[in-house]
């Protein structure tokens, strides 16, 4: 069984170096589950999300990274596409229950400034820490059930 506290600490630590929620969650999950080659590949694949701005109104990067790693790992475990999709729906439902949305800008709305920016304050960093932690744990809990 997984050590979820260790996983949570790993994603929060890596967020400091990667400075990107999607890359952080995906790479930590893949490394945690012994897929270092996939982690290196996905790191390159998620480069478009570096510098991703919440105002683009896209899905939270933590959810994107969690879904990318989850899909890969479940595929490697031999699940069918339908089974993977069922687990992806479960991941999105759980993440949405925790944050009441999957959209980055909506999660970060309390940090929105009058000029339309989301400054990298201590409070915003704490919010992002919560999203990477929950995305990684939700995905790992699904993986552990397989």
Strand percentage lies at: under 5%
Q: Give the SSE order as H and E letters.
A: HHHHHHH
Straight-line N-to-C gap: 11 Å
Helix content: 55-70%
Question: Please, how many domains?
Answer: 1
Number of helices: 7
Spans of 5+ residues with little confidence (pLDDT < 50)? none
Q: What is the approximate shape?
A: globular
Compute the gyration radius: what is it?
15 Å
Number of strands: 0
Q: Overall pLDDT, averaged?
A: 91
Q: What does the main sheet amount to? A: none
Question: Short description, anyone?
Answer:
The chain contains seven helices and no strands. With 146 residues, it is mostly helical.
Summarize the structure in words.
By secondary structure, the protein is mainly α. It has one domain. 68% of the residues lie in helices and 0% in strands. The chain is built from seven helices and no strands. The chain has helices spanning 4-18, 21-32, 36-45, 61-76, 81-99, 104-107, 122-145. The longest helix is centred in the last third of the chain and has 24 residues, at 122-145. The protein is globular and about 50 Å long. The N and C termini lie close together (11 Å).
Write the layout of secondary structure elements.
Elements: H1 4-18, H2 21-32, H3 36-45, H4 61-76, H5 81-99, H6 104-107, H7 122-145
Keywords:
single chain, 146 residues, mainly alpha, 7 helices, 0% strand, globular
């Amino acid at each position: 069984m997984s050590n979820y506290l260790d996983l949570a600490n790993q994603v929060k630590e890596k967020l400091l170096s990667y400075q990107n929620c999607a890359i952080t969650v995906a790479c930590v999950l893949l490394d945690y589950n012994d897929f270092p080659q996939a982690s290196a590949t996905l790191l390159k694949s998620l480069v478009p999300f570096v510098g991703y701005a919440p105002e683009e109104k896209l899905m939270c990067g933590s959810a994107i990274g969690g879904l990318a790693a989850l899909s890969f790992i479940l595929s490697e475990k031999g699940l069918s596409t339908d089974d993977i999709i069922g687990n992806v729906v479960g991941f999105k439902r759980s993440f949405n229950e925790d944050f009441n949305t999957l959209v980055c800008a909506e999660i970060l709305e309390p940090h929105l400034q009058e000029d339309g920016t989301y400054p990298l304050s201590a409070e915003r960093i704490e919010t992002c820490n919560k999203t990477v932690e929950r995305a990684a744990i939700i995905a790992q809990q699904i993986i552990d059930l397989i």
